[in-house]
Structures are given as structure tokens and as C-alpha cells.
């Protein structure tokens, strides 16, 4: 049974494609070991977490077993985004034994990675929950799983920065050097035609207060304060507030759980944290099978 999803956090449109690729990577021409099990054999299993976490990845688990065999039933005991405790049962799955065994690893791979990402995002978000600042992710994601990890960030309470190079402009040091100046780079962004499908935000990475002044004067939408000391960050916030056209300010670089709150209290709008997607440690999960002697799915021999 599919888990009811929070409509405010829709699952990525490419869930089925990601799951198909993952299963193809694992199964290839066929699961040689599962083929040893009689085709008529049925089974049941429960998945528990061995540690506390924020659950994320239910759409991927559902898609794994649906892809393998429509007869598999997944019953969730918790909801997407719920806080779960060690030894808690997350879901049960029942159906043809071959499908359960074949799908086990791929389903758990998605669930442990995305729950870990959501848990990391949640931990940072809660540290600044009472401020106006919000946690952003970055493009430092596992190749091929960007939309999945960015979905997990949202489930955990963080927000997404740009999805890729196609949906926003971020002018960094090398772009500025190639363009000649911040003003030239921003001017080129405004005339590039990048916004033909709608408004495209233009962000400029700045390394000091003078570059922030240039970004403001050039008409950027967002300034990324790269590795600013706290005192300079406070001055940047004050400078920006006093400008005729204030920008949104994003703090970036060497952010930790120990430093994020002090950064948020400077008054910046966003703090980007690459570690919530690139340094994740998978949540420890376990699938426990139950085999009944007379279980059958009503099929003949393979």
C-alpha cells in the first residue's frame, strides 16, 4: 500500500527512472540467487531502524517493489518525514519471495541514504528554527541522485538551492575573472536570454565587502558571502540593509552545527550547507524475513 505523501513536498518526477536504473545496476540479466527459490513461495518481512532518524524514501521503496512484482504489498507504520526511534518498525512487505529478496538491497539503499540526508538537514534546520534564516543545500550531491537528495532535504526541513546549472545563475570567482568584473558578469546575465521561460535569479559569490558593494550596484538578486568572518558578515548585513535595493544574503563555507546559529543571528537570509548531501552516513536499517512453511502465491513452478 503506497504511503500517503505530503502534497507540500511532492516526490521527484523521476522516482521510477531512478529506481529502474538502480535495479538494472543490481539485477542485470537476472537475480541468480533468488531464482533458487520456488516461484510459488511467498514471504513477509519487516524493516526496522537501528538508530533514530527522520524517515525519508518511502516513494522509492514503493517503486522498487512495484517495479519487481505488482503482487507485493508494502504497509508503512510511519509517515514520510516522521521522527523514528531505534528498533522501531518502519514498514512490512509481503508477497512473492523472489521479489522481496531481489528488491531488499535496492529498497534499503534508497531508504538509508535519503533518511540520512533528511536527518542531517533536519539537524541543521532545527538549530536555527527560531530565526528568519533558512538552511539551503548545494549541488554537492551523489551523481544521478540529485533530485532524490534534494527531495530529502525538503522532507528534513531544509530548502533547495538551484537544482542544477539550468535553473539559476551563480556567478563565481572564475566567471567574474572571465567576464572582467562583477558588473560585466551581472550585465551579461541580464541580457543572456536565460529567463525566457521565466525569471531566473542572479546570484554573485563575493569574498569581501567591496565585492558585495559591487554586486549590489550591479543589480544582482542574491549575494553569497563566501567564508566571511562573523564580524564582516554582520557588517555585510548592515551595508545591505542600508542600500537602495537590498539583496538576499546567503552565507557559505565551513558551516558546522557549532557555527550555524551564530551565522544565522548575523541576519543573513540563507546558509548553504554542502555536508547535508555530500557527507551523509547511511542510517542503519535491517530487513527481517519471516518464512511460513505453507506460504504460496498461487503460481506454478518457474
How would you explain this protein's 3D organization?
- With 302 residues, this protein is an alpha/beta fold.
- It has helices spanning 15-27, 58-68, 97-127, 146-156, 173-179, 182-190, 209-218, 230-241, 260-264, 275-278, and strands spanning 42-49, 53-54, 73-76, 83-84, 88-96, 134-136, 169-171, 202-206, 222-226, 248-252, 270-272, 285-290.
- The strands form three sheets. It has a six-stranded parallel beta sheet. Strands 3-5-1-12 form a four-stranded antiparallel beta sheet, with helices on one face.
- Helix 9 (260-264) links the parallel strand 10 (248-252) and strand 11.
- The radius of gyration is 24 Å and the shape is elongated.
- The protein starts with 14 loop residues before the first helix and ends in a 12-residue tail after the last strand.
- Mean pLDDT is 93; it is low at 297-302.
Keywords:
single chain; 302 residues; alpha/beta; six-stranded parallel beta sheet; 10 helices
Amino acid at each position: 500500500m503506497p504511503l500517503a505523501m505530503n502534497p507540500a513536498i511532492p516526490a521527484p518526477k523521476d522516482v521510477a527512472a531512478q529506481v529502474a536504473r538502480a535495479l538494472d545496476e543490481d539485477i542485470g540479466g537476472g537475480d541468480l540467487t533468488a531464482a533458487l527459490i520456488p516461484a510459488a513461495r511467498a514471504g513477509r518481512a519487516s524493516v526496522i531502524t537501528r538508530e533514530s532518524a527522520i524517515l525519508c524514501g518511502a516513494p522509492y521503496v514503493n517503486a522498487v517493489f512495484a517495479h519487481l512484482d505488482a503482487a507485493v504489498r508494502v504497509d508503512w507504520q510511519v509517515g514520510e518525514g516522521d521522527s523514528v526511534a531505534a528498533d522501531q518498525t518502519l514498514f512490512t512487505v509481503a508477497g512473492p519471495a523472489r521479489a522481496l529478496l531481489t528488491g531488499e538491497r535496492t529498497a534499503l539503499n534508497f531508504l538509508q541514504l535519503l533518511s540520512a540526508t533528511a536527518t542531517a538537514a533536519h539537524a541543521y534546520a532545527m538549530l536555527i528554527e527560531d530565526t528568519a534564516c533558512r538552511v539551503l543545500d548545494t549541488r554537492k550531491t551523489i551523481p544521478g541522485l540529485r533530485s532524490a537528495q534534494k527531495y530529502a532535504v525538503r522532507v528534513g526541513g531544509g530548502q533547495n538551492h538551484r537544482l542544477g546549472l539550468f535553473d539559476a545563475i551563480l556567478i563565481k570567482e572564475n566567471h567574474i575573472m572571465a567576464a572582467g568584473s562583477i558588473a560585466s558578469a551581472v550585465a551579461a546575465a541580464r541580457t543572456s536570454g536565460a529567463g525566457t521561460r521565466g525569471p531566473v535569479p542572479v546570484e554573485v559569490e563575493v569574498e569581501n565587502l567591496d565585492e558585495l558593494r559591487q554586486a549590489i550596484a550591479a543589480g544582482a538578486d542574491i549575494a553569497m558571502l563566501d567564508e566571511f568572518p562573523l564580524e564582516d558578515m554582520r557588517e555585510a548585513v548592515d551595508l545591505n540593509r542600508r542600500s537602495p535595493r537590498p539583496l538576499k544574503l546567503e552565507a557559505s563555507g565551513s558551516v558546522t552545527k557549532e557555527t550555524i546559529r551564530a551565522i544565522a543571528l548575523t541576519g543573513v537570509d540563507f546558509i548553504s550547507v554542502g555536508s547535508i548531501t555530500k557527507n551523509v552516513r547511511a542510517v542503519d536499517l535491517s530487513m527481517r524475513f519471516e518464512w511460513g512453511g505453507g506460504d504460496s502465491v498461487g503460481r506454478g513452478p518457474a
